[in-house]
Specification:
single chain; about 400 residues; mainly alpha; 13 helices; elongated
């Protein structure tokens, strides 16, 4: 385990290296994730088939509307990560859990909690407050389970808090789409006119932001817990291990996610304009989320800067490349410059080079030893990609010292 024997053609290579996908057959978490998605997903598919049989035209219209919203929000979430984005396979795993697994698991728990609430408070009160009482305590743990399994399967590809927010928000986005389809098709027996009315009220007014915000906060909490576990020193000799002060921040974010979910579905305040009610309930939690993301973005910039500084002077990252790697705007300018000088066919190679260099910076920030097998292999990969691009693009001798990166 760990490191293979040194070969004649290069440095020792790690046995696994960076795990860039959650689909890892060697990891027990992957098989548990797959089993839950397949088992619970079968129940979700049966429910969707029942809705389709009831109103085929309404079902297609509902998913066309929800699919458009899902694609737009998904693209916006992916754009939040300014540096080394998570692979699409991680986002796909999060979306699968949100669409297939979480709704079926939550539905089974909802039935038990709703029966208990009816017996304690009465049918009238339970009908008004059940979404606020049962939703957070049922749905958030179910979604958190998917995030935990994703982290255990691809833990090396969750570089920071922004990655955690994106993964959590994608789970919430998928859950909101699957849940929303049932609400849309319940209106007027799933007729197209009823679907459009429900879409205007349920999505355009209530929105899908509640699940995105609450589960995004949950994703930040999971990412923070994992990050602290990586960087926290071990207990002193003779002392008993236990949760330190750093455990309060993830716990506080989890509590905030539950409160955001409960507040979003609470029947108060009941203003004449429903949109104003949702804004009044959602703005405080959205403000907290913005502050958390700003802090996460600052931490990510500092981590990338530290990793680039640690690799500066080595063949993986050259001095002229550092400003480009730290700025999305300069990377866009660089691609335009390359397209003008060498054609579009080299853009994929350039993107690959910059992505691998950012992964090298992440590895350098995580692994202090510059001669660790993972850093050495990643460094050599970056050097090889740069040399290959310089030759194939016809810019040998001028790469990477173009005007755009000075």
């Amino acid at each position: 385990m760990g490191v293979r024997a040194r070969s004649r053609t290069g440095p020792a290579r790690p046995r696994r290296g960076l795990r860039t996908t959650p689909f890892q057959p060697r990891e027990p978490a992957f098989w548990l994730f797959a089993a839950v998605v397949l088992g619970a997903g079968a129940a979700t598919v049966r429910e969707q088939h029942r809705l389709f049989v009831g109103s085929p035209a309404g079902w297609w219209l509902a998913w066309a509307l929800l699919g458009g919203c899902l694609a737009a929000v998904f693209a916006g979430l992916r754009g939040l990560d300014r540096y080394d984005r998570q692979p699409l396979s991680v986002a796909a795993g999060a979306l699968l859990w949100g669409v297939l697994a979480a709704p079926a698991l939550a539905a089974a728990a909802h039935r038990a909690w709703s029966s208990l609430l009816d017996g304690v408070t009465g049918a009238d009160l339970a009908g008004r407050w059940a979404p606020a009482f049962t939703g957070p305590v049922v749905e958030e743990p179910v979604k958190a389970l998917g995030l935990a399994l994703l982290y255990l399967s691809a833990r090396d590809r969750h570089g920071g808090l922004v990655d955690g927010f994106v993964a959590g928000a994608v789970v919430g986005l998928g859950f909101a789409a699957a849940e929303g389809s049932g609400y849309l098709l319940a209106e007027d027996d799933g007729s197209p006119a009823g679907v459009l009315r429900a879409f205007a009220g349920r999505v355009l007014v209530d929105g899908i932001g509640g699940h995105v915000v609450s589960t995004g906060l949950l994703g930040v909490a999971v990412a923070l817990a994992v990050t602290q576990r990586r960087t926290r020193p071990g207990p002193a000799p003779g002392s008993a291990p236990g949760p330190g002060p750093g455990a309060l921040a993830p716990a506080g974010l989890c509590l905030l996610a539950v409160l955001a979910h409960a507040g979003w579905h609470a029947p108060v305040p009941d203003l004449p304009v429903p949109l104003f009610s949702q804004l009044l309930k959602g703005v405080p939690f959205l403000a907290v989320l913005v502050l958390v993301l700003l802090r996460a973005d600052r931490d990510e910039r500092e981590r990338v800067a530290a990793g680039l500084s640690a690799e500066l002077g080595r063949p993986g990252v050259l001095p002229d490349e550092v400003p480009v790697l730290r700025s999305r705007r300069l990377r866009r300018r660089e691609r335009r410059e390359l397209r003008t000088r060498a054609g579009r066919r080299h853009l994929a190679a350039l993107r690959r080079l910059r992505q691998e260099q950012l992964r090298l910076a992440e590895a350098a920030a995580r692994l202090p030893d510059p001669d660790s097998p993972e850093r050495v292999c990643q460094r050599e990969m970056c050097r090889s990609l740069r040399d290959s691009l310089a030759v194939t693009s016809g810019l040998a001798g001028a790469w990477p010292r173009q005007k755009v990166v000075n």
